[in-house]
Amino acid sequence: MSIESRRTPYDDEYETCLETRAKLLIYPGELHPDEITRRLGLVPTEANVAGKVRVNRLGREHVVKISGWFLSSEGHVESKELRRHLDWLLALLRPARAALLELQSMRGVTMGIDCVWTSRSGHGGPTLWPEQMHEMAALGLECSFDVYFFGDDQQ
Amino acid sequence: MPQGGAAQFGPKSVGAAQKLIGKVLQTGGNTIEKRTASALNEALGETLQPREWGRALEALKQEQSLPNNFHGKILSNGDYLDKAGNYLGSLLDYL
Fold it and tell me: How far is Cα B60 from Cα A45, in angstroms, rounded to an integer?
């Protein structure tokens, strides 16, 4: 296998991309998100506890329905290359593989990687290499794409 | 707890204004269409770009564990409903 054979090299400017990020989303069921933090040895970028009230910048309140533990590359990786974001995330998750697999075996726990990718002008193009796919498979994580299309005039 | 249109008109209110404001702007899709964003801005007194409404939708879906193939409806009062018309949340809560 040669990297020279790959059709789409890494490109931090990724012209068709307006913004991108990669997130690990864990819904821990009955477990408290702090327990996920403890088991993985990782600090989430955001965590929700079911039943807690959240207040947004408008002062609007709502009650969180389900607990969540989220780790996002946003603010940690400055690139429009999705693979950079995944590489950052996967490097953090690699040492926590055993804990992730154990969590996946627990009733009520769901998780996966969520890739947000916003098109600059209607074109597509996010690419994964076998390295990312191999790592996600080893971690037992699905990969889902949340794709947005906004034209230049709407930015 | 404020819930979209209910917060504006009071719980269980079914006045004519609410019916007008609560019309379906968009069904399905992850993208907030430009006309959807314009209608939301007009109805809610905001001046947000489609991307910002898109971020709100992303945040709602994340918090509620809605998969990326989820097919919801956006109402002009910011409410987000499932296919059966069940209220899931208000985009306003995620701005």
Answer: 16
